[in-house]
Amino acid sequence: ATQIVLASRPKGTPNQENFRFENITLPTLQAGEVRLEPLYISVDPYMRGRMNDAKSYTPPFQVGAPLEGGVVAKVVESKSEALASGDVVLGALPWATQAIAEAKKLQKIDTNLAPASYYLGILGMPGLTAYFGLLDIGQPKEGETVVVSGAAGAVGMVVGQIAKLKGCRVVGLAGSDEKAELLQKEFGYDAVINYKTTQNLRTDLKAACPNGVDVYFDNVGGEITDAVISLINFHARLIICGQIAHYNDQQPQQGPRFLPLVLTRSALIKGFIVSNYHARFPEAMQQLGTWVKEGKLKYQETIIDGFEQLPEAFLGLFTGQNQGKMLVKV
Ligand code: NDP
Question: Where in the numbering of this chain does the Enoyl reductase (ER) domain appear (predicted)?
Fold first, then answer.
């Protein structure tokens, strides 16, 4: 089998040299274990944090050890009662063309209910993130204005649609005209601003949010967030989900500088990690699954073909190569 290890820790923006391919021979299966072949491997922005030697909510990747993350895989050999050859499972697995795992650490998934890849996207970590961040922290009410940064990504695409289901005006920020058009035509966004080409982000945002901003779902941080916060209403809720604009920073940024407005508008700012909500995952899965089945939630994926494309797919997250969830099909 082949695996991809962290060759070196990135300084600033990661590149191909931070990854190395290695041939491995897997041991024989022990009782309770299964042999797996990946179908879809997820690449996610949070993995950038794990490439640093820094303490966080997940331990850092080790130099010389394989990267790992969300994988949907097929069982090809089993020494467990719980799983049989041919079953499809979700797990935290290494970036490798074959892996051995304990059956009890894997979750069997039903591919009749939804495509296997959806368990890494709308019915997986990104979908759950959108659901809890928006509904639990944001608490959007009918008629309110919800702004979403990183709007065309795996999480953002779901946030906007749930906000529409709740009767809100939804405004997105995304990095290309193609993404802006997709979100408005296919995903019900009322307005989308291309933050890369706008002459004046704050002016455009103000025009798109004539009644101000009640809920801000932040996937990005930086100047986009400063502009949104300058437009918040009384009792606005600011959900800090991601800060991808800062993940490659080598120096900590100054700021934030908008706190006087947070004070005078009595706004709430709250960060969260989706795993905080672990006990409530079944409720969210049920609701997201129902919305998908009813056609109320749509989804898009950018699926890159080939295991060897994993580093490229991951790097592409930082230049906006994806619409919806970025995945590698093995
Ligand atoms: P996405 O699918 O949204 O992919 C990342 C996107 O970010 C890119 O497509 C790109 O789109 C945009 N982007 C990249 N760099 C910048 C930048 N400098 N400024 C503005 N936009 C940028 O990823 P996910 O949906 O998986 O994740 C979205 C965010 O949510 C991430 O920050 C992630 O870390 C966070 N997250 C947090 C979780 C939690 O538990 N709190 C769980 C899951 C994700 P564009 O073309 O628009 O620039």
Answer: 15-328
